[in-house]
Specification:
The complex is a heterodimer of chains A (about 260) and B (about 220). Chain A is α/β, with parallel strands linked by helices. Chain A is built from 10 helices and 10 strands. In chain A, α3 crosses α4, α3 packs parallel to α5 and α6 runs parallel beside α7. Chain B is mostly helical. Chain B has one domain. Helices cover about 85% and strands about 0% of the residues of chain B. Chain B has 9 helices and no strands. In chain B, α1 crosses α5 and α2 packs antiparallel against α3. Classes of the chains: A alpha/beta (about 260), B mainly alpha (about 220). The structure holds adenosine-5'-triphosphate (ATP) and magnesium ion (MG). The site of magnesium ion (MG) has 5 residues of chain A, from α1. Chain B: This is Phospholipid/cholesterol/gamma-HCH transport system permease protein. Chain B: Keywords: Membrane, Transmembrane, Transmembrane helix. Chain B: Pfam families: MlaE. Chain B: It comes from Arenibacter palladensis.
Chain lengths: ~260, ~220
């Protein structure tokens, strides 16, 4: 479980996060939603320790990040997996090299053990014939899947995804969402996902945090989000014409 | 780590051999011709051509001139490769895995560049050979005169001085561009700008350090 308490972060004059508190539970997919520029990426990077918060604390299963020594922080980070907004694959390495990288770096496994593990995770993300291709030679959706494979290869306790399905077609996007959801339940991972995709919200939003202007505006599940009276949230949720129509039909049907 | 270092040696050192041999040969040739053309006084011995070529190539052209070229070739490669990793969040990805990214990216380059003096040694040979070729085949000097000039008043410390310079320049070429790449901000456009800035700073530092070292070691 990850607990965030009163998190503040500014860049110079701009106060991006203005005191966010929340809890993310194990084995659940936690979604951070909000408009572009609302601070989702900054929030996630604070959780990852890439940005140090100005105020507030973050604890991982009781361990407060800022109170750990540098080497303890490094050890904790080895338990984290991250899927970046732009995949961030190492472009000098093949798909297989990318996925194997953390294993070679931090485990003492033999070559064949590593190979088995790499084959296993790549199969898990439905990529079987791309082992020797370079990131520039595969499609965006495949890159995302390699990034997920790389993030889970070390069996992380915490998985973070920054817009894992942006820029993908709806079908692939759902595939990726379901994949993350399944992996989360299968391995009992604490997963935090940034998104502005309403499909993801409906499909896998077990817990949702809505950010607005650097504050937590609303919190709840995907069942609750469609019933809420909070104007900012309904504004966001029903910003798409499709959803507006769906809601209209739902209301008409009810009457 | 070992494979990384070997890869960098291949990329940074071995990969620069071609251009350095090319440049050294022709610069050596030009120095030899220029010296020959400037000897108008018949009292000056013809072996001065070999002597002057040796001195300029060993003292300045091989270590300093080559290093400025390397600041452009190797330096911009280092800045742009590390800078691209920064803007595409590959460095963040390393950090999250728990890798010390600065160490991982820069250390192998510094080690690889310790082989740089070998490149300079080759540049010296080729430069002098270029001078001999231009002198002899251009009809400016006889081979015997040129070789006599090469052996005239040879001071071994000059070679040591030159190698000391190369080691220092190697460290400059490995670190300044790495710094500019690692700490850059922005996008693809900024990667280009960072490469240019890195080249300017690397050259400026090489020139100043060259001056200081020459004053300290030979002055
Ligand atoms: N490194 C930084 N330095 C300065 N300001 C930053 C930095 N990173 C983000 N910001 C600012 O913080 C604010 C929130 O940015 P953030 O990237 O978190 O938005 P986001 O919610 O992830 O948006 P998107 O959905 O478009 O990815 C923006 O106004 C941005 O300008
Ligand atoms: Mg973002």
């Amino acid at each position: 479980m990850i607990e965030v308490d009163n998190l503040h972060k500014s860049f110079g004059e701009s106060h991006v996060l203005k005191g966010i508190s929340s809890k993310f539970e194990k084995g659940k997919t936690n979604l951070i939603i909000g408009q572009s520029g609302s601070g989702k990426t900054v929030f996630l990077k604070c959780l990852l320790g890439l940005f140090s918060p100005d105020k507030g604390s973050i604890s991982y299963d009781g361990k407060i990040y800022s109170e750990l020594s540098a080497s303890e922080q490094r050890n904790l980070r080895q338990e984290m997996g991250m899927v970046f907004q732009g995949s961030a694959l190492f472009d000098s390495m093949t798909v297989q090299g990318n996925v194997m990288f953390p294993l070679g770096m931090f485990t003492k496994q033999s070559k064949s053990e590593m190979q088995d593990r790499v084959d296993f995770v790549l199969k898990r993300v439905n990529l079987v014939d791309a082992h020797n291709k370079f990131p520039s030679e595969i499609s965006g959706g495949m890159q995302k899947r390699v990034a997920i494979a790389r993030a889970i290869v070390m069996n992380p306790k915490y998985l973070f995804c920054d817009e894992p399905n942006s820029g993908l077609d709806p079908k692939t996007a759902i595939l990726i969402d379901n994949l993350i959801h399944e992996i989360t339940q299968e391995y009992d991972i604490t997963t935090v996902i940034n998104t502005h995709d309403m499909n993801s919200v409906m499909e896998i939003g077990e817990k949702i945090i809505f950010l607005k202007n650097g504050l937590k505006e609303w919190e709840g599940s995907n069942k609750e989000i469609f019933k809420t009276e909070n104007e900012a949230v309904t504004d966001f949720v029903y910003s798409s014409e499709l959803f507006k129509k769906v809601r209209q039909m739902y209301i008409e049907e009810r009457n | 780590m070992k494979t990384l270092i070997l890869k960098e040696i291949d990329e940074l050192v071995y990969g620069s051999m071609g251009i350095i041999i090319f440049i050294s040969f022709f610069i050596g040739g030009v120095v030899s011709i220029q010296t020959a053309l400037n000897i108008t006084n018949p009292l000056i011995p013809r072996n001065l051509i070999g002597f002057a070529t040796r001195q300029s190539v060993i003292l300045e052209f091989a270590p300093t001139f080559t290093s400025i070229i390397m600041a452009g070739k190797v330096g911009s490669y280092i800045t742009s490769s590390i800078g691209t990793m920064r803007v595409t969040e590959q460095i963040d990805a390393l950090e999250i895995m728990g890798v010390n990214s600065l160490n991982y990216l820069v250390f192998p380059k510094i080690i690889a560049m310790l082989f740089y003096p070998f490149v300079i040694a080759i540049a010296m040979y080729v430069g002098i050979f270029g001078g001999w070729t231009a002198g002899v085949f251009g009809g400016f000097s006889s081979s015997a005169d040129f070789v006599e000039g090469l052996q005239l008043d040879f001071i071994p410390f000059h070679v040591t001085y030159s190698f000391i310079k190369s080691i220092v320049f190697a460290l400059i070429i490995a670190t300044i561009p790495s710094f500019h790449g690692y700490y850059m901000k922005g996008g693809a456009l900024e990667v280009g700008k960072a490469s240019t800035t890195a080249f300017v700073w690397t050259s400026v530092v090489i020139i100043i350090v060259n001056y200081i070292l020459t004053q300290l070691l030979l002055g």
